[in-house]
Structures are given as structure tokens and as C-alpha cells.
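Appendix B, example 12.
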Amino acid sequence: MSSPYDPIDATLGLAGTHMPLWQSRVIIYLRCLAGFLMVKTVYSWTLICGVWDGDMSRFEMISLAAKSAVIWAAIMNPVAAVGLWLGASWGVVLWLVTAMVQILINASAPEGVGRLMFVAALETVLVAGYAFLTYKAARESER
């Protein structure tokens, strides 16, 4: 049970104690999304640092567009993940901007991007899921 003084939900304040069903689902979705972004951040940094062997995973060998997407994800995703975990509006905005930039980078030069194209497609689905959940939460609050 969450109390009004729970540090995990501090940004939600007293409104977080008795939240409607769809709004609580949005918060849970954002926290799961924050976990995904942290995993994606670790993946980006392993690419940059060259943890894996082989020509396809070497950071120096991938295209400039792929390098930009990896660096963008490595820097922006952990910041957006913190905002999403807190349920802050700036976290959602930062995540949406980061996702759109990464999707555009990956779509502009699909050669050499490889596995990152799958991540861009997954992020498109995640943005659509967020849109659906916020739509349902807004409809619930209208009643």
C-alpha cells in the first residue's frame, strides 16, 4: 500500500494514493518503459565501448547514422527513464522526442543500422501503446 509520503511516488503526491484504474495503468506502463530504456542504454554503451567482438558490432565500422542513433540513445535514454519512472511530464516529453529522433535517424539510413531498426519499430509500438493508455485515462477522468 502506498502512503502519501512514499519516496517512490513523491512526485505524484496525494493524487497518487487513490488513482483511477487507467491512470494507474499509465504510471505502471511508464515505469516498465523506464526499465526498457535503461536496458537500451546499457546496450548502447556496450556498442560504444566495443564489448562484443565482430565486424558488425564494432562501433567504428557502423555508418554515421547508426553512430548518431547509438550515441543519442546512450545519452538521452537514461535521462528520459528517470523522468518516466517519476511519472513527470518532462520525462514523457523527453522520451517522445528521443523516440521520434531515433526513429527518424534509423529510417533515414537503414543500411548499417541493422538491429537498431528493430528497436525503432518497437519504440513506434510503445508510443502507440502510450497514446492508447493516455486516451483511456483521459476518457476515465471525464466521467
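Residues 21-49 form the longest helix (29 residues). The chain is about 70% helix and 0% strand.
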